[in-house]
Write a structure and sequence with these properties.
The complex is a heterodimer of chains A (514) and B (713). By secondary structure, chain A is of the alpha/beta class. Chain A is built from 23 helices and 8 strands. In chain B, helix 5 (75-81) packs parallel to helix 7, helix 13 crosses helix 14 (327-339) and helix 17 packs across helix 20. The chains are: A alpha/beta (514), B alpha/beta (713). At the A-B interface, strand 2, helix 3, helix 4, helix 5 and helix 11 of A face helix 10, helix 12, helix 15, helix 16 and helix 22 of B.
């Protein structure tokens, strides 16, 4: 048409996270194209995005060499175009998603290279429960909306090989052959930069030869489920397998094992007794054990509440040192010193005092406003002999746990919650499930724990109790509990929970007036 | 600053016959030297920091050429530097981030522009407008118009950008007006190439000094000369500028084969326009366009005849002008009306009034224009349908992804010394209730984003304290003002501290002292410990404050959160009136890491003992409520799925990026969160004693723990 030339630059976007070296990758691509004699242009907006924000580097390589152009200059764009990107390199999976969302990845032309690991954004991390974005959506979009998607957890590959992720991505880019440069140009670019040339070439080779065959796995940091501990008593194992339906057994065995280690076999037996009661009712209303299983999960957590003794037990556990050494990357022959950040206060003191004494002290502290004041900051060197002994001493208080104030408080609260579960179970299984789930609110330590307990109490009094008394219908109550729980977990200040509860109380009062 | 720009400096020495490869702003720096500039100054800020950084490292070259380079205290000082070109025929250039820097500079600029210049005076501004911007969104264009300065907006490719630097000097000299060279962020960072030329020795310089003083009252900004100057602008300077622009073809007219329509575009947007036209099949990759285009490399003043000639005999002309108000479009309409040219002018009817012209905005704008004004012969129906399809396909992709893609806002870096200040403020807030925080410009402004959400107003660089003056007396508790050390030296010590002292204000000021202007790329400050050559400096914020008569003055290491909370509480509650200043002291971690990494590597290589600190979370102790993250937000404090089969919520986790600053542990301590955090000190190249101790300790622990009942989870 009117003598317009068809040649177009090959367009490439690097989507990365600020401060993680997307710029280096872009520099390599530019250098490789420059070495090969092709016109290349790159640009970026590193500005404030440099600091952990999403960053974008945009590169165009013109597939006709400067020599062949004989003085002609292509006009290259400074912005990635919707539907105009040939290669998308994403160093993190949600950033690939963002590129797709923005229209920079399209099925007619875009080759997507993405590492499928996640670097969680602040909103995902700061959620009070689980705020992670659903990676399945990313996989679906990556599979459906690209010309071809090269997906793998390349960060894991990088870490396993001690090379940088950038170098691997650069190798993959060379490998897919969509840019006009030769492999030697890519390598030359790394060599010319003069920085960590050896390891970067190594990483490049890994990327160049990486096989993307097979389905990429959903990779979060490695999950090693602990499995059963050695303390699971045979008698209780037998009880689980004979008294409970199969769908419950995995969780219940975990619970038994944990509680036996946490306290003793008798305590684990109490756990099963409590669940038997729930299963009985669930069976009578035609349930299949789902509620019992979920109650088993939450009950095990509630019964292994984190008191000082528990923390000391965990911090003096035999495998802890090895685990820490591995986590922090201590090499063989490198000694480590572990310093634990502990700050016990009145709550922690009372938790190990005998029930009567603890109760008096807590109420005194409450009256005097001392509860948050007298905390004792400790930096405990738990790898020293004396430090470790102190932990062991605390852990040894386990044998007196049943007499402690915290124990009696927890058991009262657990019993009340179980009564609610049973009561709601006879009304509706979904309401019972929601009631079980409310236990998730109670977690953390100190003030966090108190706030969670407070929220739990509010939901009990204002939603579950009216449901049990028939003041609100079970359907409404089911939604109400779910909403209230979500609200309680959505903001730390509890304003949203207050709003939701106010809404619910209108319904309750409305019903009562009818 | 810990970065070195020696490599870039070598490119400044290229000469005739060499090919320059590099970033746009570096190309502009080179072009200054090719233009025979005598002096250069400025104030750092993205995206023009690089110009200053590179010249800071180019001392030998500058010495050879006799060029004076000045790191100015602020943009006002930089603008004032151009006074050198008022009386004498010497060329000078200054640079800053716009529009904020231009705001600060505008007093000097107005006086400069009124007096007029004899030697070429060029202001290189980084136009920080659009999606990656860190500042308020306004146009520099208005400043050029109100002060009668030339405004150049070159095509964003190195040959044009560098040519326009030289033209800017000549234009300035031809018209006696200062020239503003406006470069958008992406243009500053664009990597490309151009044919270099030899550097030019300035006419007068440090090597060849101006022999005599000139006094010319007509150049002094004092009545009645100011009235004459205002007339001179209209009667002489503007016509001279317009003549120069037209005679030297600074604007480019590119004719196509479609007679009915045309496009007038700001030079800086030209590449985006061409790409858009190519997507519509109306241009190719070499800039050949079927639709005639007038590229305005100079956007003020405009050349009325050029506009009229371009528009005459066309039915409709599209004006592609970024930002608001649409000064160019309005001016074109006025020109055509006066010249009785009847082409219809389309601009903000199809383009958005506000915001950056990205490729998507361009596509949609062209779509709007072409769907209505494309002549019948130019069959655009098919291509319009293709563009429709493109966007509906994208909607499909968005449906798969949903609306919940996590936002990634900028935040404090791993180990940042500023983070704990805001953790402390959050902790204190629980005790004293929410305070009004009068924030400032710097990395610390990020506190307004999650997880802190701290900072109620931001009024400008160094203005944290000044911006509390109106509110504080009427507010129920003390207002906390924040100011960085950069802002302090920029103007905050006078606009804030001196003013508060002179007025006897009861105020609380937190000076965030990290040793650099970190947000702009670690440039040194008067209070930095050493200058670029490593010599000790003797200026300090404390001395200034003492000199200003501040009596309540505490310096707190930022990482000591408990102490910070205590000191802040004291400042908020003490009966003592007057200004209370807390200097929050902690070196920028990025700069620190850059400094110590090679030192540590060397120590390890030499087999010397080194202790590395790293933090961690005992995941079986963590219950997954994430309070620690909400009070810290450190990028290395993240989450991972719990390996506990009974827990469904992810637990907190410290990843390998941890630099061991300890904020997570300190926050957990100060806020009494949980006992999950530990510090692991790893002894590398351990000595005999280290190994002996370790063997004893690990032996005893193994012995004791194997006897104990194993904890099940």
């Amino acid at each position: 048409m009117s003598g317009l030339d068809d040649t177009r630059p090959t367009t490439l976007q690097v989507s990365a996270i600020g401060g993680e070296g997307g710029g280096v990758l872009a520099t390599w691509v530019v250098a490789a194209a420059q070495r090969a004699g092709y016109p290349v242009q790159s640009t970026s907006i590193p500005g404030v995005a440099q600091r952990t924000g999403a960053t974008v580097y945009y590169i165009e390589v013109f597939p006709v060499s400067i020599a062949d152009l004989a003085g002609k200059r292509p006009v290259m764009a400074l912005y990635p175009g919707v539907g105009d990107i040939d290669i998308m390199l994403a160093s993190e999976f949600a950033e690939a998603g963002r590129a797709i969302f923005n229209g920079f990845v399209t099925p007619d032309r875009t080759y997507l290279i993405a590492s499928t690991h996640r670097v969680y954004a602040i909103g995902e991390r700061s959620d009070m429960a689980d705020g992670r974005y659903d990676v399945e959506r990313l996989f679906d979009a990556a599979r459906e909306r690209t010309k071809h998607a090269y997906l793998a957890d390349l960060r894991q590959v990088a870490e396993a090989n001690g090379v940088s992720l950038n170098a691997i991505l650069f190798g993959v880019l060379a490998g897919i052959g969509q840019l006009p440069m030769a492999v030697a140009d890519y390598k030359g670019a790394i060599e010319d930069s003069g920085i960590a040339v050896g390891t970067n070439i190594e990483g490049f080779e890994i990327g160049l030869n990486f096989s993307f065959s097979g389905e990429p796995e959903i990779t979060d940091p490695i999950i090693e489920k602990n499995g059963l501990g050695p303390t699971t008593p045979e008698a209780l194992k037998f009880r689980v397998s004979s008294e409970f339906p199969e769908s419950c057994q995995t969780i219940l065995l975990e619970g038994v094992s944990r509680l036996a280690g946490y306290q003793d076999i008798a305590y684990a037996a109490v756990y099963l007794d409590r669940l038997s009661g729930i299963l009985g009712i669930e069976n009578s209303v035609g349930g299949d054990g789902t509620v019992t299983a979920e109650a088993g999960r939450q009950l095990a957590l509630r019964m292994s509440y984190e008191d000082v003794i528990r923390v000391a037990q965990l911090k003096s556990a035999g495998d802890r040192l090895d685990r820490i050494r591995e986590e922090v990357g201590a090499k063989d022959g490198e000694p480590i010193v572990v310093v634990d950040y502990l700050k016990p206060g009145i709550d922690e003191l009372c938790s190990v005092l005998p029930a009567g004494l603890g109760r008096s002290l807590i109420s005194l502290a409450e009256r005097q406003g001392w509860r948050d004041r007298f905390n004792c900051g400790l930096y405990l060197k738990s790898t020293t002999v004396t430090g470790y002994l102190r932990l062991r001493l605390l852990a040894g208080l386990r044998r007196w746990r049943r007499g402690t104030f915290r124990y009696s408080e927890e058991q009262i609260s657990i019993e009340a919650w179980l009564e609610d579960v049973k009561g709601t179970l006879s009304l509706s299984r979904s309401l019972a499930t929601e009631t079980v789930e409310c236990a998730r609110l109670i977690k953390g330590y100190g003030e966090t724990h108190r706030r969670g307990t407070e929220n739990f109490k509010l939901i009990r009094e204002q939603v579950i109790a009216p449901a049990l008394s028939g003041a609100i219908s079970t359907d409404i109550a089911t939604d109400a509990v779910a909403n209230a729980r979500a609200a309680a977990l959505s903001d730390p200040d509890g304003t949203r929970l207050d709003d939701v509860l106010a809404e619910i109380s209108k319904v309750t009062i409305g019903n009562a007036a009818e | 600053m810990e970065r070195s720009f020696k490599k870039e400096v070598t490119t400044l020495r290229l000469g005739d016959g060499d090919m320059f490869h590099g970033e746009g702003i570096l190309g502009v720096t080179k072009a200054l030297l090719q233009s025979g500039v005598s002096y250069v100054g400025g104030y750092q800020g993205a995206p023009i920091s690089h110009l200053m950084d590179v010249l800071s490292d180019a001392k030998p070259l500058l010495d050879e050429l006799g060029i004076h380079f000045e790191v100015c205290a602020n943009e006002a000082s930089a603008a004032a530097m151009l006074a050198a070109s008022v009386n004498y025929p010497i060329r000078g250039a200054v640079t800053w981030k716009s529009v904020v820097g231009t705001n600060v500079a505008s007093d000097g600029l107005s006086n400069l522009a009124s007096a007029g210049v004899k030697g070429g005076a060029v202001i290189v501004v980084g136009e920080d407008y659009g999606e990656g911007s860190s500042i308020i969104q306004e146009r520099t264009h208005a400043f050029a118009m109100k002060s009668t300065m030339c405004l150049l907006d070159p095509r964003p490719e190195l040959p044009t950008m560098t040519r326009m630097v030289e033209e800017a000097f000549k234009l300035s000299e031809a018209s006696n007006m200062p020239s503003v060279l406006e470069l958008r962020i992406r243009a500053c960072h664009v990597y490309g190439h151009f044919d270099a030329k030899d550097n030019v020795n300035p006419l007068y310089s440090r090597n060849n000094k101006i022999p005599a003083a000139e006094f010319d009252f007509s150049r002094v900004c004092l009545p009645p000369a100011t009235y004459t100057q205002e007339k001179h602008k209209i009667e002489h300077r503007l016509p001279a500028a317009i003549k120069y622009i037209a005679d030297n073809n600074l604007n480019e007219r590119l004719d196509g084969d479609v007679p009915e329509i045309g496009i007038i575009v700001q030079g800086g947007i030209y590449n985006t326009l061409m790409r858009g036209l190519r997507q519509f099949g109306l241009a190719d990759s070499y800039g050949k366009s079927r639709i005639s285009t007038l590229v305005m490399n100079v956007t003020y003043p405009m050349v009325p005849d050029e506009i009229a000639d371009f528009c005459v005999s066309k039915d409709a002309v599209l004006v592609v002008e970024e930002g608001q108000p649409e000064f160019i479009e309005q001016a074109i309409n006025a020109i055509l009306r006066k010249k009785d040219v009847n082409a219809k002018i389309i601009g903000k009817d199809v383009f958005p009034m506000a915001g950056e012209y990205t490729s998507e905005v361009m596509l949609k704008g062209l779509y709007g224009f072409l769907s209505k004004y494309a002549p019948a012969g130019l069959n655009v129906k098919t291509v319009l349908a293709e563009i429709d399809q493109l966007f509906s396909d994208r909607d499909g992709a968005r449906e798969i992804l949903g609306d919940g893609l996590p936002l990634r806002t900028p935040s404090f870096c791993t180990g940042c010394p500023e983070r704990p200040i805001f953790s402390a403020l959050k902790i204190l807030e629980k005790e004293l209730g929410p305070a009004h925080i009068s924030a400032d410009i710097g990395c610390h402004t990020f506190a307004a984003l999650p997880p802190f959400n701290v900072g109620n107003t931001v009024m400008g660089y160094g203005l944290g304290l000044a911006s509390s003056a109106g509110l504080a007396p009427s507010f129920h508790k003390r207002v906390i003002s924040i100011m960085g050390d950069g802002g302090f030296w920029h103007n905050g010590m006078t606009s804030g501290v001196a003013a508060a002292q002179a007025n006897g204000n009861d105020a609380v000021l937190l000076v965030v002292k990290n040793g650099y202007t970190s947000a702009t790329g670690w440039q040194l400050l008067p209070s930095s410990l050493r200058d670029r050559n490593g010599n000790k400096r003797d200026m300090s914020i404390e001395k200034v404050l003492r000199g200003f008569g501040v009596r309540w003055l505490k310096t707190v290491r930022t990482y000591s959160i408990a102490r910070m909370v205590k000191t802040l509480r004291k400042a908020m509650t003490t009966a003592e009136g007057g200004l209370k200043v807390i200097i929050a002291d902690g070196e920028c971690q990025l700069a620190r890491q850059r400094r110590i990494k090679p030192e540590v590597a060397k120590r390890l290589k030499d087999g010397k003992r080194d202790v590395r600190s790293r933090f961690g979370v005992d995941e079986d102790v963590c219950t997954g409520d994430h309070s620690c993250i909400r009070l810290s937000g450190c990028p290395s404090l993240t989450i991972k799925p719990s390996s506990d089969p009974l827990r469904t919520d992810p637990v907190a986790h410290v990843n390998n990026d941890c630099v061991g600053c300890g904020v997570c542990g300190e926050v957990s301590h100060a806020a009494v969160l949980c006992p999950s955090f530990f510090e692991a000190r790893i002894v590398r190249n351990p000595n005999f004693l280290d190994r002996l101790l370790w063997n004893i300790r690990s032996g005893v622990i193994a012995l004791l723990s194997s006897k104990s009942p194993t904890v099940a989870s």
